[in-house]
Amino acid sequence: FNAEEFTDPTELRSLAELLGPYGIKLLNETLMWHIQSQVTELRKLVLLNKEILIALRTNFDKPDIMKELFKRLQNVDSVLQRMTIIGVILCFRELIQDALSTQLEERIPFLTSSIKDFHCHAGSPHESSLVAELACASGYSSKVDPALLATLRQTPGPKVETDEEYLTSCLLMVFTAVSIPKLARSESSTYQAQLEGHSNNIHCLAMAVNQLLGCLFSLGGHDDIEDRLKEFLALASSSLLRLGQEGAREDIRNRESVYILLHQIVQVSPFLSMDLLESCFPYSLLRNSYH
To answer: In sequence order, which residues have a C-beta less than 8 Å from that of residue 248 and are 6 or more positions away?
Structure first.
């Protein structure tokens, strides 16, 4: 099917008008439930590869060891597929939220302007979380998505120690970062400039990486979201740069398109900057990729 038939901004604004804020909230909860089920499966895949991922994390500056360790990873395609599904859901939700905020700004402009003002100038962390929930219900985005945060906090299954859960989140970050180069092998990973996206929706990974990992590290309680995403960027960059040394043509079929994905991850991130990207990935490669 054509995605644009289901994501037309005018139609979504009409949907937001019909459903109202409470209806959109219910729709968001349904979308979050789907994300929760994907995260549960991702955690199982991380635990299956735990020892290898720990080794990958500590040997990121040793290309030969990284290459051998990556060959031993299981279910790489499944991780990329599940992360892409999460990204697609989050991108669709963003369109819904934009439609809701547009409708509310037309109907109750004075109230929405007050909400935006609170959102920009919230004080204490507790106050910020309450205001973020209010802003989310009005269609505005936050650095860390409160709806996704609440969903992940209630993930079903046996309770694990916070440190163990935090390590699992770190290893999921490592798993995603080192798996990204594998996308270059797929014929459908081609970047389409007219859509500013990839044929197989991998551009949605940018949203998944920033929103999902941001929430998971926020739950970890170490207050290190930026540091962990910098680590993700370093791992992904070094893994992508090794693509240039691959001999087989099928391994680098869409290498430039995957370079663009790395750029998109930084572009949509509230935690990363182009300066950081340029410090670990040559800008000339990005420029040539767009050409």
So the answer is: none
